[in-house]
Give the backbone structure.
Amino acid sequence: MKMNLFLSLFSLLPTLFIAACGEDGNEQDPCDGVTCSGHGTCVVDGDSASCDCNDGYHADGLRCVADDDPCDGVTCSGHGDCVVEGTEAGCDCDDGYHAQELECVADADPCDGVTCSGHGTCEVEGTEARCECNYGYHAEGLECVEDLQPGTATVVGTDILAAAGGQDRINIRVMTHGDDLDDYDFIVAKNPTVGPVIVLGPGVTAQSLGNADDYHDVNEAPADSYQADEGNDLVIGTSWRDGGSGSTGFYMTDNVYILKLDGNTYGKIEVLSAKQGKIDVMCYHQPDGSANIATEPE
C-alpha cells in the first residue's frame, strides 16, 4: 500500500514542473498579458509586473489611468484659455484681460474718469491715456486747455515835457495816461541827471526779459523773479535806452519788461521811441490773471 502511494506521487512531479515553467518548459513572464491599459509599458520588478505609465497617466495596479486634469472646470471667466504649467493650471488671458488666480479679469481702463476737461476725447495708446482735444484746445497732461488767444497791444504816447512835474502816469489796465492819475502802473518821468526814466507804481513789480525775443514772441509771464523799485534802485529805470540824446532821439535796447500788477495780473511793455520828451510805450495787459501775455502785431 505504501509503495503504491509513493509511485503515484512520483508520477505527478513532471506535471507540476511543467505547470510552474509553462507548457514549453520555460519560466513564465510576469508581463504576459499586461497591457497597462495601452498607456504605458509593463516592466518586471523581481518576479512581479508593474506599469511605467506615459505622461498624463499614473499606475493603478496593472493599469495606467489618466491623471486628474488641472484645467478641469477652469473656464478663465470665458476670456482666456487654461494652460498647464508643470502640474498647475493657469490662465492665458485675451487682450484687455489679465490673470487673477484662475480668472481673467478686465484690465483697468486708463480712460476711466478722464474727462479731458470736457473739450476732448480720451484715447488709449498702449496702456496710457491721452486726450485728443477739440479745435482751439491743446493737451496738457490729461486736460484740454484753450489755446492762447493773442491780445492786442496798445501804443501809449507820453509827453513828459508837457506833463506837470515832468511825469506822465500810465495805467495799462484801461490804457490811459495823464499827470494827474491816482491809479497808475508806472510813470515815465523826467530826470535832470540821467534823462527820462520809468518808475513802477504802487504794488507793482517787474523784471526785464531782455531783447532776445521780439515783443510779440513773448507769450507767457514768468512765475517768479519779480522785483519792486527801492528808492533810486529802479527795476526798469533807464535800461530801455542805450545812447543817443533827448534832442536827437535815444537808441532803444528793445528790452521787453513784464509787470506784475497789484491784484496779480500781468502786463507787458516795451519802449518804442523817445525823442524831445515824447516817449511811446507799447503796452498790453492780461486781465484774467493768467500768464498768457501773447500778442500779435496789428
